[in-house]
Design brief:
Number of helices: 11
Largest sheet: 10 strands, mixed
Distance between the termini: 45 Å
Oligomer: single chain
Length: 667
């Protein structure tokens, strides 16, 4: 990493309040050239709930001063009800959030230090709302950079997967957001108003999971904020970025396929991180330089070739032995001028020989404990380990050893002729690269709630005794299967804790000769004669002087099995960043834990839990928040228990407790 300290323009930092139409004020931190009043600049907005005063401040210091030094006003705004902004936050991507974001864009454009042109950028939440605000077409917003984000809030986010409840993050992320929305603003910014602002937030609290489980099919709640509903609404230029280790990678493929306006896609080997941040897997790139070229072209009219790049640049991964982290993922960059690529050839391979007997699929409930983290952040235990144990809990269909190398790029599919012996069920498909020594590396996977086989907007029970053809679309990948390896299709009926188990615990009958794997093959020689893809090395502004605190040593992911009861427990430390002391004297400590429990033979034994403990101290200011969330289910209801306890100086400010039963309509 190169730290850039000398910039063309001197940078100053100011704090500001942005008024909304109802009188609520959002707090902004603005990095801008010191001479911007005399020589105005375009503005760049990052708009998040993740607290610029503490949680994101180390990351903010990497990029906002960098952009400012290159002639931009780089602005970080806390969402309404988060960080130091006024008001309350009731849900993610709510109409109020989007309307506020449009107002912020227009406010920035009207400032005397701004040229009137605005860009937006962000990773994850900030990438989501960049797309959502772009779809509202505020006139000043000319370009966005959306990283690790989703265009479909129902089928490509942290709530549902393939029409099934996403057990690992439906509860875990709701617990995380409960911990975020329970935190107070900082008196160093808001003064004595911090306590009444905090009490207002605590009074308005409601666990987000209640709302998410109230909408178990893809209804209007999920259509709101899903830009896939109308790609044509976006006319700003879009640079869409993702990583093969990130669950949102398919959004990049859809955006480069469907957006009618200027768009470029970039898919690397990365996890849920900006591509310049040195967290595995690499290699990492000079992402700030790449985005600066984008901004200069669209916001400063620079003729710099930003749109001369191919429509999609992708990293095709070389085969590697299975591991839970890779410092560098070997591979190469390939390019496509259109997507779907006209170079792709679909290869269809039946899962069994003609006339072979049908097979039964019925998996133990702990199938999935080796799935890896849903959101890899670049930690040591994030990626799936060797899949041999998972394969043993599944029904596997192996191809013959490959006679030659096979490269795939895009979204594979598996078509299954099957029957289920219960009205409700789920089918999970994994594709693995099996080496001659038996090592099994996960390449891609997909999930289908059988009730959503006719569309995610409805739930249609299966009719046992009436076989059907269903198709499971797998997540996108760029991968090279080497000669001599086998391609394995593994099918299971469980995938805990990623997929919340259906209560009926069905068995499936699959006809292999009428089922097939369809691979998007990139033929050898496709890239001959094309210009190589090149990036500069990573470069950032100097890091913030944060002192990391000591943390209690414990495993990031611990799997335990009680042989007597058949119970399996996954104990997770999400390791978001830990405790730290900031230059302004704030001492922030954080402990988070997630637990997922199930018995091997009982789908109704599933439990997902989340616990957070946060303390924040500076001089005589000392506050703490403890939260807990637990999700279980009966055959007919989801059951949610959540608590919050907030203290100031050791005294209780608020205690909240929720118990909710939500009918199982589709999940």
């Amino acid at each position: 990493m190169r730290y850039r300290e000398d910039f063309a323009r001197e940078v100053e930092v100011r704090e500001d309040w942005i008024p909304m139409a109802d009188g609520t004020r959002l707090h902004a931190r603005v990095w801008l050239p010191a001479d911007a009043l005399a020589d105005p600049v375009p503005a760049l907005l990052e708009y998040l709930p993740y607290r610029k005063g503490d949680w994101t401040s180390p990351r903010d210091a990497q990029r906002h001063p960098y952009y400012a030094g290159h002639g931009y006003a780089s602005v970080r705004v806390d969402l309404r009800g988060s960080g130091d902004s006024e008001g309350v936050m009731l849900d993610e991507y709510a109409e109020q959030e989007t309307a506020d974001g449009v107002a912020v864009v227009e406010w920035l454009a009207a400032q005397p230090w701004c040229t009137g042109r605005v860009g937006m950028f962000g990773i994850s939440w900030g990438g989501f709302n960049s797309l959502q605000i772009a779809a509202r077409r505020p006139e000043p917003l000319k370009a966005i950079v959306t990283v690790c984000s989703a265009d479909d809030r129902y089928d490509n986010d942290v709530h549902y997967i393939g029409g099934s409840v996403l057990g690992i993050d439906m509860a875990g992320w709701s617990g995380t957001m409960l911990a975020f929305t329970s935190r107070p603003p900082d008196p160093i910014t808001v003064g004595d108003a911090w306590l009444p602002m905090w009490k207002e937030r605590l009074d308005a609290l409601e666990p987000f999971v209640h709302t998410w489980l109230d909408h178990q099919t893809r209804d209007d709640y999920w259509r709101h904020g899903s830009v896939c509903e109308d790609y044509s609404a976006i006319d700003a230029a879009v640079l869409a970025v993702g990583g093969w280790a990130d669950p949102y990678r398919d959004t990049v493929l859809r955006l480069v396929e469907h957006l009618p306006g200027p768009v470029r896609g970039l898919l690397g080997p990365w996890a849920h991180q900006y591509p310049d941040i040195a967290r595995p897997p690499g290699p990492h790139i000079g992402f700030l330089q790449e985005t600066l070229r984008w901004w200069d072209h669209w916001l400063k009219d620079a003729d710099n070739g930003a749109m001369d790049t191919p429509r999609l640049r992708s990293w095709v991964q070389e085969p590697v032995p299975p591991a839970t982290a890779y410092t560098e993922r070997p591979g190469r960059w390939v390019t496509d001028d259109a997507w779907p690529s006209p170079a792709t050839r679909w290869s269809e391979q039946a899962l069994g020989a003609a006339g072979c007997a049908p097979v039964t699929v019925h998996s133990p409930q702990h199938t999935g404990v080796d799935a890896g983290r849903f959101f890899p952040y670049g930690n040591a235990t994030d990626l799936p380990p060797d899949q041999r144990e998972e394969d043993g809990r599944s029904t596997c269909f192996d191809g013959e050893p490959l006679a030659e190398r096979v490269e795939v790029l895009g979204r594979a599919r598996v078509r299954l002729r099957l029957d289920a012996d219960r009205p409700r069920g789920t089918v999970i498909v994994r594709v693995c690269d099996v080496a001659p020594d038996g090592a099994s590396t996960l390449v891609t996977r997909g999930v289908l709630n059988l009730g959503s086989r006719y569309g995610r907007d409805r739930s249609v029970p299966w009719e046992p005794g009436n076989p059907e053809d269903v198709e499971v679309e797998l997540t996108g990948t760029g991968y090279a299967f080497p000669a001599g390896h086998r391609i394995r299709v593994a099918v299971s009926t469980a995938y805990w804790p990623w997929v919340w188990p259906q209560p009926d615990d069905p068995s499936l009958t699959v006809w292999p000769d009428r089922s097939a794997l369809l691979l998007p093959v990139r033929p050898a020689g496709t890239d001959e004669g094309r210009a190589p893809v090149e990036f500069e090395g990573p470069e950032q502004a100097p890091p913030l002087a944060v002192e990391l605190g000591a943390s209690e040593p414990r495993p990031e992911r611990l799997v335990s099995h009680d042989v007597g009861t058949g119970e399996w427990v996954l104990d997770v430390d999400p390791n978001y960043g830990g405790s730290r002391t900031y230059p302004n004297g704030l001492v922030y400590t954080e402990k988070a834990r997630e637990r997922y429990r199930i018995r091997v033979d009982d789908p109704l034994s599933a439990m997902a839990g989340s616990e957070w403990e946060i303390t924040m101290r500076r001089e005589d200011w000392d506050v703490s928040v403890r939260t807990s969330s637990e999700l279980t289910a009966t055959a007919d209801h989801f059951v949610v228990h959540s608590t919050v306890e907030a203290r100031s100086g050791g005294e209780v400010v608020a205690t909240r407790r929720w118990e909710r039963e939500i009918p199982r309509t589709a999940g």
